[in-house]
Amino acid sequence: MNHIQKLLLLTALLSSSVAFGQLTEDPEDRRDQGKDPLKTQTVDGQPLPFSQRLRFGGGISGLRFGNPTSIGVSPVIGYQATEHLIVGVGGTYTYTRYKGITNTGATVPIETYNQYGGRGFVMYEALPAIIPNLYLHGEVESTTVQAKADQTGQTASYSLTAPLVGLTYSQPISRRFGVNLTALYNLNDNLIARSIYGSPFIIRIAFF
Question: Where is the signal peptide (predicted)?
């Protein structure tokens, strides 16, 4: 076998190896080819397993120190239904405490709020060729607030179901994780909603 034949044989073997690697590689490896990783299928067109389409994360909300003191958490589970559609569910919990000053000048707790609820949401990437990673966002959130007067022990509770619509911009970090900035408008804006959200316009930052 002369040198030219050896060179052709080596080239054929290398080409076969590269082709096989492209068929079996993880979608994340598409970045080496200058392409974004696929979200719902492998390079050869096979659908990804259910577990590889799930996205986990959440965020911290309502973080305030002083008067009032407040902190909230909001875990999220999302599912990549198609290349451009994400559906998911999430939970919320926020603890808030207000303080007052007595006649003697002492600072004491006067009201404590426990706010919790859940939501279901849909995100659709409407114009991926023009504005990638910008999603139309719709969700329904149900919230319950339990209020307690710390000095008297009296309690009260109220609930609200709010349909929210708006936009989410997602900055991908990996195929199944990103930073999400969401701007929503509450279609059920009323006095109870104002006591929960403070405004019909809601801004969130979440990681999933």
Answer: 1-21
